[in-house]
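Page 37, continued from 36.
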């Protein structure tokens, strides 16, 4: 009886090792992102981005940000904590993955990084300088926002992408299997266009 029980326990432990890691992983934070592509002539100068956190994450993060616990986020509270948050996100390229003709464009800094808390919703806004210029032939750009640890799930809808300074830019949101993460098991989507 004891041997059978030991065998059963060993079999259960072994079977959990066979379960794909993706089945055990799931995001805890959900963010809707919107993008504004800023062009000057034939150059993509910057990407303005807004992250809108889900209700539970908004509440959770406000506890840390709202240091006087009055239920609001003041500019002073944000300005005090912004450098640490920005530094952390910079270590992860702000979870923004930009590719020009398949080559990664490093994201090291952002401008105008601001947090707001209104109607019980936390939002981060920032502007990403990129300065991508059209060459002799069309340039393909992919912009994917994802967290490789899969702690945070980002979603970008096509209608949440806008363009300033350039007309008739055809934008698509496609699967980007070349950017698959979490041991290749999760395929992100990417905002894709040529200019």
């Amino acid at each position: 009886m004891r041997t059978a029980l030991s065998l059963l326990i060993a079999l259960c432990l072994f079977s959990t090792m066979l379960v794909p890691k993706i089945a055990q992983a799931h995001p805890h934070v959900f963010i809707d992102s919107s993008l504004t592509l800023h062009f000057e002539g034939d150059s993509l100068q910057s990407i303005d981005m807004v992250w809108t956190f889900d209700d539970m994450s908004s509440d959770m993060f406000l506890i840390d940000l709202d240091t006087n616990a009055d239920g609001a986020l003041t500019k002073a509270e944000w300005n005090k904590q912004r450098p640490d948050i920005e530094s952390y996100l910079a270590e992860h390229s702000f979870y923004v993955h930009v590719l020009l003709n398949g080559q990664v464009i490093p994201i090291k800094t952002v401008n105008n990084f601001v947090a707001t808390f209104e109607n019980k919703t936390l939002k981060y806004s920032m502007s990403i300088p990129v300065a991508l210029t059209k060459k002799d032939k069309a340039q393909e750009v992919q912009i994917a926002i994802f967290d490789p640890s899969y702690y945070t799930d980002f979603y970008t809808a096509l209608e949440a992408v806008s363009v300033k300074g350039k007309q008739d830019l055809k934008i698509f949101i496609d699967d980007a299997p070349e950017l698959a993460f979490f041991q290749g098991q999760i395929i992100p989507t990417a905002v894709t266009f040529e200019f």
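The two ends are 71 Å apart (CA to CA). Flag for discussion at group meeting. Residues 26-194 form a domain with the Acetylcholine Binding Protein; Chain: A, fold (CATH 2.70.170).
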